[in-house]
Design goal:
- The protein is α/β, with parallel strands linked by helices.
- It has a single domain (3-138), classed as Arc Repressor Mutant, subunit A.
- It has 4 helices and 7 strands.
- A 4-stranded mixed beta sheet has the order 1-2-4-3, with helices on one face.
- Strand 5 and strand 6 (98-101) form a beta hairpin.
- The longest helix is centred in the last third of the chain and has 20 residues, at 119-138.
Length: 139
Amino acid sequence: MVVEARGCIGYEVRVERLKTDINSWKHKLKDFINYSDNVDIVIKFLENKASLGRIFYKEKIIELDPRFTLIQLRKTLIHELIHYEQYVDKRLEIKEGEWFWNGVHYENTLQYDSYKKLPWEIEARKRSKEITNKLFNIY
């Protein structure tokens, strides 16, 4: 896992702290999330200013926006790594722009109220909360 910052002017201190945090606990995350080190983290300003992070599955890249707090960014990274695990395990599949969860087709809506009810989002939110609590209680 490579952690890289791109154009985060004004957020250098937060970015360096986040990079240090990720590098110090990324191996402990493997106790909770089945992911490989071939997923990279890019810290950059995202176009959607309300978005904390996102994942590009085929490219194996998670993007995080440094304009949020370190706690929010830690939770977001864990959330996105859970999505990556879902994708690698083929519980979450994307075929020709169509989304499938455990073989069942779902409309991947961009409306937040509907999006948060998708089964992969429900799982990612629940597990990321549990993992965040366990991981940072270990600290």
